[in-house]
Amino acid sequence: MVERQPSSRSCFVCGRENDVGLKMVWENHPEEGEIRSRVTVSEQFNGYPGVVHGGILAAMLDETAGRAVLLEGDPDQLMVTAKLEVVYRRPTPTDTPLLVVGRLLGRTENRAEAKAEIRLPDGTVSARGSVLLARPPREILAGWEAERQYFKVD
């Protein structure tokens, strides 16, 4: 069964109320062991005309790999990125439907490894990311408590 992941209000990548954000939404696909998001990045996020800025792609890969820990549906499993490595394979066009896929590679109580990739409509991978995640510091978790009520599926 496909289930949507919750999103926050203000996150640049997933924030439902962020007027300048990407508003990405992910679905859990436990049978394949992955999460997926479909997104079209507008021209306002270009690095060169017609090409998505590499920093935007990195943010998409970072968030998607990080959300792979939510495949089982527990928002308390959220972690923060300790390391992100991105490989840009080819230009990613703006105003084009993209599929972003994340997969959890392994985890312990305090760390996890995940990967993500951005696929063009023909299935070609335009960028890949590998992420090392860590349990957030207490001050991050404390700040999250007030926002937790808004982390939901719309």
What do these coordinates show?
It is a single chain. The protein has 154 residues and is an alpha+beta fold. It has one domain (3-150): Thiol Ester Dehydrase, Chain A (Roll), CATH 3.10.129.10. The chain has helices at residues 54-67, 138-147, and strands spanning 3-4, 26-29, 34-40, 46-48, 51-52, 80-88, 97-107, 111-119, 125-134. The strands form two sheets. The protein has a seven-stranded antiparallel sheet with strand order 1-2-3-7-8-9-6, covered by helices on one side. It has a two-stranded antiparallel ribbon with strand order 4-5. Strand 4 (46-48) and strand 5 (51-52) form a beta hairpin. The radius of gyration is 15 Å and the shape is globular.
Distance between the termini: 18 Å
Q: Rough shape?
A: globular
Uncertain runs with pLDDT below 50, 5 residues or more? none
Helix content class? 10-25%
Task: Report the CATH C-level class.
Answer: Alpha Beta
CATH homologous superfamily identity: Hotdog Thioesterase
* Strand line-up of the largest beta sheet: 1-2-3-7-8-9-6
Query: And the CATH topology?
Result: Thiol Ester Dehydrase, Chain A
